[in-house]
């Protein structure tokens, strides 16, 4: 199975229009267009009943001490965790493409309540839900896609994995505001094929990615 995108090249830099935030010389960062990327796939095996799509940042700092603190930088060797940016389950087997900006267009304070997506699909709660907890202006339930916004002072470039799974599931056994752990548990033993695209992104002014 093959996963491709016209929005970015594999292992290339994600364009700012796909991000939650972009660099700003005066305020360090500012909100961006927050468009979901175009994704297309082919070669799903016989017996595929639905697809599952994930976008995960695997370079998230596991300690917040230095995150976005002036005069400090998040150490490169700090242990890293995962941050879910997108989870879509129950994508019908006859769907083979998601258009750029069709599921997310702009940043929605407090999160999208009913994000657009392929008919019949369901979208989970991304990890901005926890990130903005306690923020009076932004706290809420963030469903669907919300793009990159790594710490602007991180010494590590972040890598974003777009993972597509062909499954034998008519409907994934997840409910409500499901997240990454629930999707991975649901996928166990039901994956027929998988494909992946990787993108890189940073808000650190020291880096000029190409």
Low-confidence stretches: none
Order of the strands making up the biggest sheet: 2-11-10-6-7-9
- Share of β-strand residues: 25-35%
Give me the number of helical elements. 2
> Could you estimate the helical fraction of the residues in percent?
under 10%
Termini distance?
Answer: 27 Å
Q: If you had to describe this structure to a student in words, what would you say it looks like?
A:
- With 210 residues, this protein is mainly β.
- The chain is built from two helices and eleven strands.
- It has helices at residues 128-131, 180-187, and strands at 2-4, 12-13, 21-24, 28-31, 39-42, 50-61, 80-92, 97-98, 122-123, 158-167, 191-201.
- The strands form three sheets. It has a six-stranded mixed beta sheet with strand order 2-11-10-6-7-9, covered by helices on one side. Strands 1-5-8 form a three-stranded antiparallel beta sheet, with no helix packed on it.
- A hairpin with a 3-residue loop joins strand 3 and strand 4.
- The longest helix is centred in the C-terminal third of the chain and has 8 residues, at 180-187.
- The two termini are 27 Å apart.
- The mean pLDDT is 97.
């Amino acid at each position: 199975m093959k996963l491709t995108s016209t929005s970015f090249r594999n292992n290339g830099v994600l364009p700012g229009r796909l991000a939650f935030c972009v660099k700003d010389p005066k305020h360090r960062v500012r909100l961006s267009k927050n468009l979901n990327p175009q994704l297309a796939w082919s070669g799903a095996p016989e017996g595929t009943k639905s697809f599952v799509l994930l976008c995960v940042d695997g370079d998230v700092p596991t300690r917040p001490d230095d995150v976005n603190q002036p005069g400090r930088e998040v150490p490169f060797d700090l242990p890293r965790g995962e941050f879910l940016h997108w989870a879509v389950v129950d994508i019908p087997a006859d769907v083979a493409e998601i258009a750029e900006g069709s599921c997310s267009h702009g940043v929605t304070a407090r999160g999208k309540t009913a994000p657009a997506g392929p008919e019949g699909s369901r979208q989970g709660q991304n990890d901005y839900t926890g990130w903005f907890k306690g923020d009076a202006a932004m706290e809420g339930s963030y469903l669907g896609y919300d793009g990159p916004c790594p710490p602007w002072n991180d010494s590590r470039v972040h890598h974003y994995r777009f993972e597509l799974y062909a499954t034998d599931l008519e409907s994934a056994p997840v409910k409500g505001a499901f997240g990454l752990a629930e999707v991975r548990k649901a996928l166990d033993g039901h994956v027929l094929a998988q494909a992946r695209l990787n993108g890189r992104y940073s808000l650190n002014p020291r880096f000029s990615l190409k």
